[in-house]
Amino acid sequence: MNYIELASKIEERKAIVPGHRTCPGCPIAIILRTAYAATDKKIITSSATSCAEVTTTIYPYTSWNEPWIHSVFANAAATISGVETAYRALKKKGKIKEEIKFMAFAGDGGAFDIGLQSLSGALERGHDFVFVCYDNEGYQNCLSIDSLIMTETGLKKITEIKKGEKVWAFDQNKHLPVLKECTGVFNNGRKRVYEIETIHQNIKATSNHPFLTLKRNGRGKENELIWKTVSQLKVNDEIVTMRKLYDKGKAYEFNKIKLTKKGDYKVNIINDVKLPEKSTKELMLWLGLYVGDGWIREERGEIGFALPENTEERKILLKIHKKIFGQENKSKDKYYIYYNSVNISKFINSLGFMQGAKNKTIPSWVFTLPIDQKEEFVKGLLMSDGYIYKKKKDSCRYLSASKELIKRLRLLLQTMDYRVGKITIQKKPKGTFVVYREMLNDGEYYSICFSKKDKWDVKKYPNQYKYQNYFIENEYFETRKIKNIIPRGIEQTLDLRVDGEHNFIADGIVVHNTGAQRSSATPYGASTTTTPGEKKEFQKDLARIAIAHKIPYVATANPGNLLDMHEKFRKAFEKKGPAVIIVYAACPTNMKAPEDLTIDISKLATETNFWPLYEVEDGKYKVNYKPANKKPIEEFLKMQTKFKEVLKDKNEIKKIQQEIDDDFKELLKMEEAFPLK
Amino acid sequence: MKTKKTALNGGEAISYAIKQVDVDVFAMYPITPQTPIIESYANHHNNGEVTTELILVESEHSALSTVIGSAASGARSVTATASQGLMYMYEVLSVASGLRLPIVMPVANRAISAPINIHCDHSDAMACLDQGWMMAFCESAQEAYDMTIFAFKLAEKVSLPIMVCIDGFYTSHNLENLETYEDKVVKKFVGDYKGPYNLLDTKKPISIGALSLPNTFFEIKVELFKAFDDVEKDFLEVSKDFEKTFGKKINFFEEYKVKDAEVVIVVMSSTAQSTKNVIDKLRKERKKVGLLRPILFRPFVYSKYLNTLKKAKEIIVLDRAEGPGSSSPLYKEIKLSVCDNDKKINVTSYVFGLGGRDLFEKDIEELLNGFIKGKPNKEKYLGLKK
């Protein structure tokens, strides 16, 4: 048998047909199809409740072309015992003549944990069946680390979110924003991400990350909201996005900073200024102008604005500066305004707008401001680097060298019920005149266009608008059509776990939180949602438990070695009596690993002896693969982010390596003592 | 038709009926007081009297699970249990009914833990009321024998599983001289197994137990609920057939001197036997008392009850199980049956015999006399130690 023959055999059998819903990179279908190709007889399969069961049958559909039964989580082996016994009973009575094979198919939960008793009973009773455990090491998504999350204290990078913090989520009953506690932050490793683009939003997420989408059920029928993963999303699907947040109407109270006083080191004179304790409309306007046209040199105590004479903006700034800080402009420059105050510069720097045209940003707290203060801030921005189209009422454009600033401004505007277009990039070559100066280097500028949203005239066109927008009368959320789904390569990813609603608002879009729990087959050191740090117990050895039942055939297999796996299935179905095959099933979702690396990781599991391939036929051992150059376990662990905690600790790695080496040595000894010839 | 008198206890009587039916698969796991059923069946098997395949499982969860597998595979299948065993099966009960498998399961009613107790009450069966199983409560070994035969035919006709309940020890272990029928007549009455589908038919492969999401789940469940509405009609049909074959009538409930009774006592299973003695005694004293003994508890055929009970002034319901924080299960059903009557009928609830506490004839007599004299017993729990 070679790969081509095997492939054609699988193709001929067509036991598991396409249309099932396993995750990308999931080996379940590979394992099943290989099993079915291993015998010419029909196979009746009983599934435990598991990924395989859930993904292959959603009533009224099924991927099973041969008889299949599922009852509950714990009883795959017992159910198949009943089927096999019925077969024997009916065969004895001559009611059935056909030769049929039986298989129970369970995940590690349905075999190692809740299913162990039923498995043990069936093995002991000696039913003629093959029990296949696909071990995915646990009960079983993520966002790019660029994602910006709406929290109680404003917009934050996903990397800044801490456990216990409150994030804004979507209340799935009331369709309103609700604050929920973040109960965990999960580093999900480097994964392939896709960028979802709507007219107003962009977000990068992995292919298995769920988004809340609107399912239209046709005219006259209720629409519904359903979760769809990125791989299920299509262009023109409508996803739920944020329109605005509650206006809490509370000004932001600034942290106290240590001011410079007269008499401090080298300080002889100090300009007397007053500093605001809370945010105000004037200050926000000032800050808007500052972000666009201002700079600070804290060491010199200089605050500057590029606002030429005889402009409306200059007049406004002079006026509000005096009102806020109580300071007059003394410079007489034609193009620039200068103020001198160490304390104002210290104060402004403490607000977090950053320095330099390319680095400027909008700090989190701005997102928590009352709407009128936000409006003033946007007005300030527009007065500096903005442009208001006169013809189209309320249509504005804002340009900046800072991408971060534009990204955040876009989300800020989205909390204020603005409609915002996508970010466009403008390249300006060296020598272009900008702010009365020639540019010294090539520059990149980012811009967005935005305008206030019109109110729906619900009374006039109730049904028409309802059809267009599911959230017609909802002030806070709306749905947006996906314009584009673009692969963006492999990036570092993170995910949050959120109490209650299990979703949060990232980059203005409602997204689902993470999942994957520990089972007794979860390896030592792995982090799961029920063992967020690392698991402290070694997995149990189901193969040895099966061997202890003295059944005719026990084997381990790995989709990384299909021919070996196929041969083992063939033997198992041929043997009279029970057989157990435990298959390594790399689960990219649970491993927090890229889905196109399933087979690579599977191979590495055997190359490192983490998953040795062996078989025990009537008590005689054979190790099917002895790696000539055994690889260190670290190489295997590194592929999966779930081991990131354990990888930090050399002693822990040593402990795992020791366990693996000891197990393998023992296996070799067993082979030596009871060799299979 | 020839009949034969045989001395059997309740467990053996059920086992004898299953033997005559000669089921295809019997999954067994011992638990007191059900054990006489499986032990005697194992003997039948050992003596070569049956062609049944036995599965000696490692737990009740697996017992019902294997039987689900075999019943789905075109094999007439049985398992028996009691008490904790039934509780352990609980998860799979709704699978058997959800997959519409006509499994027959004798249950020897026993108290449930804690505290642990091996004796009779109805708490085990009553905990499983609404899992989509039909339930029949039998008074004697004779009725258990008849009902078991009846149950196969009914279950397969309506595609629903059924529990045949007998009182643990009182019925399961007490020897009775009962009338049994000829094997071939029983076999003919039950006929070939009629499952709703057959997993072993590889020419028509089917997937059973698929995942059903909110868009389909409700309808599938409602189909099951509606199947219960149809049981009444099919029950009467099977009953007619049964009467024709064996000369005995099986009804939804038994009426004993109820017609003109002013005080009616309602009680199920073996306790009805001693109650009948009391009724006879009081009738001799010209007291208008009667007994109503529900047999088919699920579905509970409310309409029939009202007709029978509407002339009563006082109804006394004796439950062998309690609904803590609510009311006892049989009481609820009787109350519901008569609540639409124009004339208000008093229904009083009593609980007796938990964990095998005996209820003597004198206790029942005292209780009935209290009602006749207009001084009903105020204590809900009968036979409590002072």
Question: How would you describe this structure to a colleague?
Answer:
The complex is a heterodimer of chains A (677) and B (386). Chain A is 29% helix and 26% strand. In chain A, α2 packs across α14 (562-574). In chain A, the strands form eight sheets. Chain A has an eight-stranded mixed beta sheet, with helices on both faces. The longest helix of chain A is centred in the last third of the chain and has 24 residues, at 650-673. Chain A has 677 residues and is α+β, with helices and mostly antiparallel strands. In chain A, a hairpin with a 2-residue loop joins β27 (503-506) and β28 (509-512). Chain B has 386 residues and is α/β, with parallel strands linked by helices. Chain B folds into two domains: 3-246, Thiamin diphosphate (ThDP)-binding fold, Pyr/PP domains (Rossmann fold, 3-Layer(aba) Sandwich); 253-372, Rossmann fold (3-Layer(aba) Sandwich). Chain B has twelve helices and 15 strands. Chain B has helices spanning 10-21, 35-46, 60-72, 83-98, 123-126, 141-158, 183-190, 217-246, 271-284, 302-309, 329-338, 361-372; strands at residues 3-9, 25-28, 53-56, 77-79, 104-109, 134-137, 162-167, 175-181, 207-208, 253-256, 263-267, 289-294, 296-298, 314-319, 346-351. Chain B is globular. The mean pLDDT of chain B is 96.
